[in-house]
What we know:
Oligomer: single chain
Largest sheet: 6 strands, mixed
Mean pLDDT: 91
Order of helices and strands: HHHHHHEEHEHHEEEHEEHH
Number of helices: 12
Strand order of the largest sheet: 1-8-7-2-4-3
Low-confidence stretches: 297-301
Helix content: 40-55%
Amino acid sequence: MSFRWARLKAEFLDLLELVLVPSLAIILPWRICYRVFRVLSRFTFLYRESCAQPYAFAHHHGWFQDLGRWQRHRRLVMMVDHADYYLVRFRSLRWMDRHMDVTGNWSPPGQAAILCSFHWGCGMWALWHAGAAGLHPHPLTAPLRRDMFPGRWVRYQYYRARNRAVRDALGNEPLDTSASLRPMLRALHSNGQVIALLDVPPTQVAVSQNIPFLGMRARMPVGVLRVAVDRGLPVILYVNGFRLTDGHRFLRIIDLGIASDLEALCHQAFANLETLIREEPVLWHYWEVAELFFQVPNKAE
């Protein structure tokens, strides 16, 4: 296969998977759209890159035995996750109120706090819900560079647009903490909030801690939680998922309070992730790199 043909094929699949299929949510009522997604989830050529590799680790550890079912549900999760970008752009907050059940409350606006979640479920509507509640937190993100998407122009443009949607939802610019936590500390010092996803592979962070997880020992990042303990800041954990049966979303907001013990806070936070994975394992997006959490050399804690 020539390079040009391979490039065209990759671009077409990206256009199909990231734009054409998920944007059906713009023109179809959600209940009908979700039924269409369930039908499309049976087409094995869709989201192939996201389906095959994650299954191996999950299957080896007994989380799934049925490859076909795993891949159908995985494709469904990908479609809903991408559709949410188009929904937040073309639907109102009233749509969110009709299609998402919410439990718990955010921290008060104007109070320094750390909002955190995991790579589980589909989190776009949670950001819009936080913005509607008067919060303007800074998301902690790594920079998006063109060289991260060689030969994938459509994919690069899609994720640029998705990042803009996050910024618009929160009303604040993202903070790059890949080199230092100082931007985060400055925001908190000004009584701002930050949003962080806690389950980043430990190979990508400077400090991690060994904790029980999924019946094994895993190393999980602790930098953000350590800041919360050191500075006496409240930690709000939120989870934004959906039911596989009908696509109805839910947002759970859990106040973890102000912790004085880092180890206890880590156990509490990641026990929530373990509960979520046991509740619906296919909604965790990091199965493809899961082994990194369990096969990483010790680091200073």
